[in-house]
């Protein structure tokens, strides 16, 4: 399958993919355009998840590419980035669902699980026969969750008893495996547990009335004396530094998602400008409209260059916290500008789903906030730049 040119990729960044990677991206892009794009607005408007697409995603064979326990050649970080970008370009909700499952849930098991645990859980998750969720954020703990984690774990014989609450947990209403992070009452260290969906003592309640990523099924979780076997405690999770290592990797994925949203907004706005006529001519012929499009293209191009270099650092083993933090903060800020300019160019037509941009304007707000706010990521970069922390 041939990889067509990507609107907005002015510097032809996708040409950096090798032939095998281009074939994978082309196949995924065709699937997204044929099966996700036609239903994206309707699912978003009804706040319903298209469960029927999960087996089709499994057939693509991309969920387990990054994990040794799943078949297939390991992908480059560049390929993983382009896949996240393309999903977000079509539907940020679907991209978020996929990132939670593969990056956060599968990533936690791959990094912190024992060999037996990885073999037990990852192959079925890679085939998307089992879906994962990641439960870290709490009702009273977002940016300060590293210090303020309140969910507790107490060892009781050959099991653990979990108590606490989690909030904004994507996929949790239907996930088979939920990675729950809790503080051990005995040693005050953060540990990870794989809790079965529907386990006794676990209640998941869907969060209603969202204005962003409405297709994603976020949930409030309550754990009340929820028992988890010792065999389901992630063997390699022994402190928040292990949790942070997973977030470091997935944070770069959010930067790629932001680029996808920018490319979508640019593509929609450009198409609208060429077709929309005012004062007897297409509005694309007006200087101020062209200026808006060029600003959008500039933001997208600069951000794409940043995340491409980020992927190269990852594969070279030179990747640090400040790299992903700067990319996430910068790209999501530029994304907010781009969707705003696209909405501005489309005037009143920009606030309805019919013309395409309204969903991206709303979804951009969620991407801007999750995986670390701009302020928190700025402090991570500032610490690296000065050698001094300024978090509290």
Order of helices and strands: HHHHHEHEEEEEEHEEHHHH
- Amino-to-carboxy terminus distance: 52 Å
Supply the CATH class of the largest domain: Mainly Alpha
What's the CATH topology label of the largest domain? Butyryl-CoA Dehydrogenase, subunit A, domain 3
Radius of gyration: 21 Å
CATH architecture of the largest domain: Up-down Bundle
Pick out the low-confidence regions: none
Shape: globular
How many E-type strands?
9
Number of helices: 11
The share of residues in extended strands comes to 5-15%
Nearest-integer average pLDDT = 93
Largest sheet data? 7 strands, mixed
Percent helix:
40-55%
Structural class: alpha+beta
Fourth-level CATH superfamily of the largest domain: Butyryl-CoA Dehydrogenase, subunit A, domain 3
Number of domains: 3
